[in-house]
Amino acid sequence: MIDVLRAFALFGIIITHSGGGFLAGRPPRPGFMAFTPFDQIVSQLDRMLVFGKFFTIFSFLFGLSFAIQMRSAEAKGVGFAGRFTWRIVVLALIALVHGAFFSGDILIIYALLAFVLIPFRNVGTRWLVITGLVLVFNVPGLMLGASGLRAPAPVAAQQAAGAQAQAQPPAMEAIRRAFEIKQNGSIAELVQLNLGSTLASKLQFQITTGRLWMTFGLFLLGVAAGRLSIFSDSGQNRQFFRRLLWGAGALAAVTTAAALLRPASMPVRSVADLLASYSFTVQQVSLSAFYLALVTLLYWRSPKGWLARLAPAGKMGLTVYLTQTVFGLLLFYHLGGIGFGALGHMGVSTAVGCGIAFYLVQILLARWWMAHFSMGPVEWLWRSITYLKWQPNTRPAAQPA
């Protein structure tokens, strides 16, 4: 079940990245990949139905995996915190290598937050749920936004300085330069960009938008879900997911309509702006919960059905996530003469189509790989470094009847 959900999340992630040309940064102009009316429709659908929703599920599953690993360590009677800390150090190293080539890397954020997650392993489940919901629904961000609205209005000099900062040529030049490097730069320039100013901007974005603590809240909810074993097929859990399906679906429908009528805008200057921004946050969370409940119930209805075919890709999710980046860099970037350089030239509809096609190839390759091996290649490397010993990674041959 969890492997299916992880594979489903990766499906949405490659659509998100492909729809933005794997730029993972501010585009040089709005709608830079919308060349046709159909591109505009696909872009809007991506924003409302995909953007942010599948990373939410991916983050939730990270917390769930934490709970499973902790329970496994307890069952074996071995220590957990020390081994998990080293495991996350290794993940951080993988993230730095990945982030050097792709500015949209999320693993470094996961690694940083995973260190904070360790002290929460002994917190009661009820408090995990309460704290997680407060963070996931970005209540701190809503309170900060409201307090900002109550602040005295800026004087003319402050308004002029703010306008100048927004239109500051160096900032626009940095955006243009980053786009040019990804479009037709060198590998050395890309690495220098991604490990320098881009990494700092990513951390700033995570904090200013509230995504940092929202992701941590998803970790906490995942840990609670693991403790409660809500993904074990039972009548009680089916009833829970049915209620979640209808409740989250209704909330998602209302907030989606609100987001279409009043799109979120930055900066927030009024109560209406604040509510529009917060409505889109709720839309992302509720629609993610709807997807999660829908896939879970569909899988339980037919455990041997078509959804089960996704499980191998979810089992080697880290490998799938990283190879999606390889696909994106080769298709959209042109670095040192390598890559097709489609960034800025391919429409969003074609880009999303290419991403879906590559994901289908990943599903087939994952099914073949997991038929012969017990772990994905990157998972095997991660586990081997964690235990400082090469781990076996072959499936035993079937015994004759």
Properties at a glance:
401 residues; mainly alpha; 18 helices; 73% helix
List the helices and strands and how they pair.
Blueprint: H1 2-19, H2 37-50, H3 53-76, H4 81-101, H5 107-117, H6 125-136, H7 139-150, H8 156-166, H9 169-184, H10 187-194, H11 197-208, H12 211-228, H13 235-261, H14 271-301, H15 311-315, H16 317-332, H17 348-372, H18 377-387
Helix pairs in contact: 1-2, 1-3, 1-16, 1-17, 3-12, 3-14, 4-5, 4-18, 5-12, 6-12, 13-14, 16-17
Give a description of the structure.
Helix content is 73%, strand content 0%. With 401 residues, the protein is mainly α. It has a domain at 2-149 and 172-233 and 303-370. The longest helix has 31 residues, at 271-301.
| Total count of strands | 0
Distance between the termini: 29 Å
Oligomer: single chain
Strand fraction: under 5%
Basic shape: globular
| Whole-angstrom Rg | 22 Å
> How many helical elements?
18
Low-confidence stretches: none
Q: What is the typical, i.e. mean, pLDDT?
A: 89
Briefly note the structural class of the backbone.
mainly alpha
Sequence of secondary-structure elements: HHHHHHHHHHHHHHHHHH
Q: In this structure, how is the largest beta sheet organized?
A: none
The helical percent reads: over 70%
